[in-house]
């Protein structure tokens, strides 16, 4: 994973909201990342690789103030919704 790759993901798919008591947990963050990769035709890395890259940006899954944004957020939310049929 290149620095550009993670920076693009962060700038396009997450935003920091200090008002948020708890941010994205590991499952949500990885799910959002895989949705972002799908939309951008990028092969997703394993969770451990993503966590190491995020650590370089001082982001920890489950201990952050991140919220979802953009098309990847919409894709993740729709993909995560239970089947309503």
Termini Cα gap: 38 Å
Kindly provide the radius of gyration, computed on alpha-carbon positions and rounded to a whole number of angstroms.
12 Å
Domain unit count: 1
Share in helix? 40-55%
Strand content: 5-15%
Q: Uncertain segments of ≥5 residues (pLDDT<50)? A: none
SSE string, helices as H and strands as E:
HEHHEH
Strand order of the largest sheet: 1-2
What is the residue-mean pLDDT, rounded to a whole number? 89
Principal-axis shape: globular
Describe it for me?
With 85 residues, the protein is mostly helical. It has one domain (3-80). Helices cover 53% and strands 7% of the residues. It has four helices and two strands; from the N terminus they run αβααβα. The chain has helices spanning 3-13, 26-39, 47-55, 70-80; strands at residues 14-16, 66-68. It has a two-stranded antiparallel ribbon. α2 crosses α4 (70-80). The longest helix is centred in the middle third of the chain and has 14 residues, at 26-39. The chain is globular and about 30 Å long. The model has no long low-confidence stretch (mean pLDDT 89).
What topology emerges from the helices and strands here?
Layout: H1 3-13, E1 14-16, H2 26-39, H3 47-55, E2 66-68, H4 70-80
Antiparallel strand pairs: 1-2
